[in-house]
Records
---
Amino acid sequence: MAIATINPATGETLKTFEPIADEVIEAKLELAQQAFKKYRQLPFEQRALWMQKAADILERDREIYAEMMTLEMGKTLKSAIGEVEKCALVCRYYAKNAAQFMADIPATTDASSSFVRYQPLGAILAVMPWNFPFWQVFRFAAPALMAGNVGLLKHASNVPQCALKIEEIFREAGFPEGVFQTLLVGADKVGNIVADDRIKAATLTGSEPAGESLAANAGKNLKKVVLELGGSDPFIVMSSADVAAALSTAVTSRMLNNGQSCIAAKRFILAEEIADEFITGFVEKFEQLKVGDPMLPETDIGPLATPAILKDLDNQVQNCIQSGAKILTGGRPLSEKAGNFYLPTILTDIPPNASARQEEFFGPVALVFRVADIEEAIELANSTSFGLGASAWTTVNSESDRFISELEAGAVFINGLVKSDPRLPFGGIKRSGYGRELSIQGMHEFVNIKTVWVK
């Protein structure tokens, strides 16, 4: 895949980049190694000043960065501005809390003194996706850099300008040379980079195949990995739920990032008693959504990131219909527009053996199911190989308790939108990956948890 900025709203290639040569990769790895030796010794107060400055820069130039994201991968400009602001938030969160999160933890043993000390590992490789081109990077970089690690970013090949701009932000904020570097390389280079002794661990957000490949390479080289992969999150609405609130949130969740979000609700599981009411409202709201130029404030849904994603999504929809599913609205690309636009789509009556029940639809497509009771809802919710997030709507405490205990997911939200929050750990189970980002747990993924015993 070429490293290039291709406007997904028009298909126009705006800028292309040459991948860096092997000798440049070598130089950057060595620079990271040397930078770590000094950077790890710096006090948290100094790192925090630089991280706060990064947040200031993000907020100062939020519109510039947002336009760059929209131009490269098609998210609406208003959502891109929100993404930049969230990046500033995570920078400030770790600037404030890193020293506490990394403080020694005393333990009472037979020693005169014993405690746990957290220490940085070194250079961490981050393989990041295009769908949240700033947020995915900053939610890795803020805790990793505050812990004393250094970062190397291999970003998705369709967001090279975002990748380079993020390195520039950290450099302008004052971080020493080599503490955060972008590698403009193709996926074929990742294996050798992971194998290099100077890389101590890796993290990846992306597809299952990409996660499998990185995990295999890291395992071969005995290196720690955090993976955040796909999802087919259930959105369960029980008969006691506030249907109006659930409906509004359902549309918002499914259309996050033009439908291209791992934690977007994708399977809508409805109690029979409220199913007709919900579906009627769902179709109405989908048909009111405005699809078009993502730079315009009135646009709700922009283009999908690439023509290949558009084609794959439409193939999934058509296969689902051919298997016997019923289409309630949408179901095709918006052919009268140039670019990668797809109509908001709702499918229902999906047969039990349809492959769609096990797939992730990465675009504005909702799958709707009816269930008789909570047992059937939980069974259906857990019936995929994914386990990222889940949203359940009920006003019955016993039902809430069951959803919290029995849904197979890294996060369960009751009567709310599944989202990431710096104050809470984020990640999945099953084929949605392993390890955690954010909060104290995310910071501790890339540290040496060292036992100290003194007598």
---
Amino acid sequence: MFVELLKAESSRASKEAAVAALLTLSCLNENKACIGSSGAIPLLVQLLISGSNQARKDALITLYNLTIFLANRPRVVRAGAIPILVHLLSLRKLDLLEKCVALLYNLSSIEEGRSTIARTEGGVAVLAEILETGSIKEKEHAAATLLLLCTNSSQHSQLVLREGVIPALVSLSVSGNPRGQDKAQKLLQHFREQRQKDTVLSHSAPLISCSQGERLDFDEAMKKNGKKEEKKGESRRMHKSRSGSLGFIWKSKVTTLPLYQC
């Protein structure tokens, strides 16, 4: 019944009522599989584009709840959620940025999600930007997502490094919350180990040392990542200039709404 109410021919009020009901149901673990297999996920993703402000908010949180159940993650990716989430993050107008990044983190736990983030225009760039300018929780989720991308693909590691993330990771590793510090330190350690492998051929020094409790060398981090900072700035400027081309999917003005708590 709720799925039928989410379809295009339904009224705005019906869609809002249906997604609100699904949000409540999605908080219970025993309902996640049933909702995921009901055909609701593509309709919820569509609401991120065309729904009212309330429906968008509720759809986003519902999708996050559903992706706690592993089998729903490929469904959300295949429904086209990742490019939409990247666009929403680039707008920086929602009070739900944290939930957007958290949803991307859930989706990055599967190979299909990671590859989609990497090939989505602005996908890595917007995560790198959040790593610099986001809230503590947003930075934590961004670092966790980038860690999954990098540790599962050397190509993804290069994409992330080209965004000049080292200084932001160094900062997060010493000033973030415990989980953010842990993810940042692990990602720095990953880059250090990759650099050490390169020294077998190039005889270069490791990129950075990031052992627990050790004072991190900001100057060294900046030196090693300097050229990538330039590319990062250029990449982000291009992304921001192009993001207007996606504006047609976000026609309604977004208002600040309280976050639903399950």
---
Amino acid sequence: MQNYPLAADFPRTAAMARYSSLRAVAACILAVLLSACRETAQLSIAAGTGPTPQLPKPVKKLIPTTNVAKAIGWTAGQAPAVAEGMIVSRFAEGLDHPRWLYVLPNGDVLVAETNGPKRPEDEKGIKAFFKRRFVRKAGGATPSANRITLLRDADGDGKAEIRDVFVSSLNSPFGMALVGTHLYVANTDALIRFPYQPGAVKLAAAGEKVVDLPGGPLNHHWTKSLLASADGSKLYVGVGSNSNAAENGIDREAGRASIWEITLATRAHREFATGLRNPVGMALEPASGALWTVVNERDELGSDLVPDYLTAVRDGAFYGFPYSYFGQHIDDRVKPQRADLVATAVVPDYALGPHTASLGLAAARGNSLPARFANGMFIGQHGSWNRSPRSGYKVIFVPFDSGRPAGVPLDVLTGFLTADGEAMGRPVGVVVDRARCIARR
């Protein structure tokens, strides 16, 4: 007997074919438009770096600049170029989208193998369709492994001989902090904690929720970074915005674009500082004890705007988002404006170049690297997707003097892009232990 498809399958098959054809046509049209309309930077990265960066007039286009580097990964024997007087080697490999790092007191390295959760409200419309294509090209579309892996270099040769799943079944985990006998983990929607025994290669007990964090079906910036205060009484959580520049409505930004302070004894929380579009890396500056952060700034104002930045974080301060950037520079896409808030906007301490995607931050204290890296901050720059030519894709060091940035950035790791503009790696988390600087790549 000859088999025929059900009648209902015919229109479905035809619709699928039409959809595939429309997708192909749309992709071709987009490629032509992007090639024809791509805007090019008029300033160097250096011009957008330092305490007084150049901030030209915004460039607004119907189709913003896109210049995505295809992720291809590292092959055997490949490595980034390293600053003079240093050696770079693979500490571990074969990890599933490693994003963030934490060093335990015994030298064990924890790595969050993670990616964004399902965000149905952040995946609508034609713009979201093309954004997903760009993310896939850049290597960021993999499902989240939702685990933290422990890496141990038992013999001190710079390679992790022991590798174990430390904790799993998490929800897009990111930040980690050990305080006393508990390891705190920042999932995308909650801060949780686990009992920790020194030297453990697994966390045996179940996690306990400490406080909810902003999540939800939009959750535009999903990562939640984490830092303990010097005395261990408080935790600081970086919470990114729910938009590029408030296009989803100011009401969707409640509790976001800020650094939270959580008092562990009471579990009370408050917004320590606000107006920070996407504060990811955080560190305590050793000389002053001040909290510092790197902030990933807004897009779609041209290749020369807006610089990401490194800044000390003042208690109660407002840093502009979404109404303004770098102090009182108005973003007129945001309606209505808040002149009262803009008037109070703090100017960040140090620009890091436009679209460098500066995400990782680590204070230099206690390392045994060359002397020029003894005092300052290491910064992981994930790299641009919307600047021509590309920016970031490296690890840099900003020297400090008397607790403040002093001088131009120094390259630590470079060579993440091939001559053809493909990305072998994209730095994110950076940590320092007694002997090494370890960068996730």
---
Amino acid sequence: MQAHGVSSLLVEGDPPGIFTDRDLRRWVAEGRPLEAPVAQAASFPLLALPRTTPLLEAVAFMVERGIHHLPLLEGGKVVGMVTHTDLVRQEAQLPLLLLRRIEGLVLEGYAKEVAGLVQSLLEAGVGALEIGRLVAGLNDALVRRLLAEAERTLGPPPTPYAFLVLGSEGRREQALLTDQDNALLYAEEGHEPYFEALAERVVGGLLAAGFPPCPGGYMATRLRMSLEGFRKAMRGWIEAPEPEALLKAQTFLDLRQVGGELDLRPLEAELLAQAQKGVFLHHLARAALAFPPPPTPLGRLPSSLEPKRHGLFPIVLLARFYAVYTGSPERHTLDRLQAASRKGALSLEMAELLGEGFSLFFRLRLWAELLGQGALSPKALSPLERRRALEAFRAVRTAQGHLRLRFGLR
């Protein structure tokens, strides 16, 4: 590596791997023997992307996985390598510099830098949903770094656990730092003091980074329980979906694991199957009708347009309903709409119209939040945006009408 001026080596094997300068530093710091085979210190499997991958997508991939070297493939063979240093020379430097700060646990100013990143990418014409994915990857990296630091202080976890993000963060649809939504599950009871301390450290770190506390208490310091305890709680929320229980159940339908070694795939499949039964699906359908679009007399938008309440909420709720209705494990709203279309629950045209509306309102929401506003004047929108917003409202009304007829709801 020194002779050739490179910071990584590909390691042959099945699967292949990579040996980087970070692997070397970690190996030496742990006092491991330098005579050992390089495969013992390498990282497996090799994470790579096609050489035609757009730059920002490659950056998001690296941020999500916390890697600094990305092999590029053509015809299944590695033809090049993109490194953190290469990308810092390009437009991608901001998210990667933020990742460096996260790795050093530099929390002060994180929220301000994320806002600056979002604004610069929006002004550069980057798609809002791509920005949301990138920022979600940075937030995930921050959570994993806080978990690693907590484990170093508290010692290894006494039983496997899973740190979850919920709501918009679980769907990768949150760009600016809004209220925390997270939870902590662990495999076996009897270890509550350890996980209480772990949750406090992570939630405290997120507070220091600029994530406000959740007013409803949806944070791991309160939403912390054993796997079996969570199963019982979720069954209760689904079988007796009173307003508060319905809210909790819906929130956990968007869960995404960002840390810990506990395998939640069986649990997720179980929860999805339970949610399809009985009265819960009926209540989920009713919830999808709770946010009708605002009136648009004579094709005019309301004088005060709230992108989140008027546009995002109804589409998110419709997509969540259809994910449960069709048994789809998808989380992101666009993925849920596409899955519903593939399974025949939504027409392809309706899924596309709702998806286009979601993309528009997500971008408008980012601009509104950067301006410190909850609403925008229609005058702030371009003629094309106004027309697309009206089309989205019509699509939502139609989709909600079909759902109302299908379930006999008023």
